[in-house]
What we know:
By secondary structure, this protein is α+β, with helices and mostly antiparallel strands. It is built from 17 helices and 14 strands. The model has no long low-confidence stretch (mean pLDDT 94).
Amino acid sequence: MTRSGREYLESLRDGREIWLDGERIEDITAHPGFRATAQSFAGLYDLAHDSAHASVLTRGGVHRAYAVPRSYEDLVARRRAYKVWAEASYGFLGRTPDYMASGAAGFAAQPEVFRGERFDGSAQARAYHQRLAESDLYCAFTITNPASGRGEDDLRVGVVAEKDGGIVVRGAKTIGTGAVFADEVLVGTIEPLGPDDAEQALTFSLPLDTPGLKLISRQSYEARARSVFDNPLSSRYDENDALLVCDDVFVPWERVLTYREVETTAAMWWRTPAYLNFVHQSATRFWTKLEFLTGLAILIARSNGTDQLPPVTQAVGRLLGMVAQAKAFVLAAEASYEEVDGGRGGVRPGQEISFAQRIMAGELYPRAVQDIKLLAGGALIQLPASGADLVHPELGPLVRQYFRTPADPAEDRIKLLKLAWDALGSEFAGRHEQYERFYQGAPHVYLTMQTWAGAADDCESLARACLDGYDLGTGLGTGLGAGLGTGR
């Protein structure tokens, strides 16, 4: 059964080792750097546990993200669940619990992929999915290696010893988004590994209170937020990113998914539906986030009294076109679904469209932010330091007089523009722009992958058909191509 928000918050008080600003945080549910965001995650659990949205978010008492989709209709149902949770944070909580839940469902669809030449993790992959689903757990992941990882002093997570019942690991992983709020963290790698990387070719999942497991948080935007009025997004939806350090951590065998297997450590992402499931969730969230930003643009234009000017209506039209593009990629990936393992593993979103979505999102988000900044103009810069100015006995009348517009009283306008600044120009906003650019990896990776996932052969064949359809002696004709009607 799904957990309540209260049950989720109680699970975070487990003695986990979280560090922020040189301080070990005893209870993230009470600390000003984490507590409001923890409450936001708890709100997601409440939506699934007992709300009008429960029937959309769950089936049979389990979140729909954990289900292995068996049909197009199942993909649509899963996306509708993604959309509800995405809208709850306006798209600003990226790695919500349904993200890794969908990845676990991908593992469960093809557990045989975890069966290598020296280690068989197929049973553990099934158990991992079952454990998360039945207990409604929030699992984060850390799958990126430190930049200075290789060399004599290898900093990547690797095996240092085998013991009865498990292994001992040491090293670090970066960009543990949402990890401080999770029940478990999956530690692995999605980066290419070579034949000499067997010690680092492993994947495992551990509870956050495991001895020797540390999370070192980046600065907390929530901690720096002055109030919800002044920082409406960063004060509540700072999912955080952390460095994970394994200091001789013991990992039981039942928690190990891949071990000393370079091929299966990579295949678990690419040969199961896991990665495409990730894209399905993130593409739905991205679509939602663009809807929110475009709504902000419309409200700003109306507040400025410029919404009827042709250049402004064109700018809004361009943003609405971006929203439609984001939506179209989600719907197209579902409609182009592919069978998994001949149907035995259900279905997955279409790979070609899913991979292309990564390109679109990374390029579209900065353009959308720039377009909305242009619509807002200098109004984003000249804002009162805080909402306290509005209620100050001396300053309040001045602020209310000089910040009003014909469309909005001062308080409404300041509230709108502070929301816009938090979304577009604050340090929190800068993190989100960088995040969306690299959410699905670096461009040189996903652009290269598109060359083999896309329909390059079909494109080449169509161009070749035109070239082959004429020569120096060809006279006038209908001009109809040889490829006409193939339905590619």
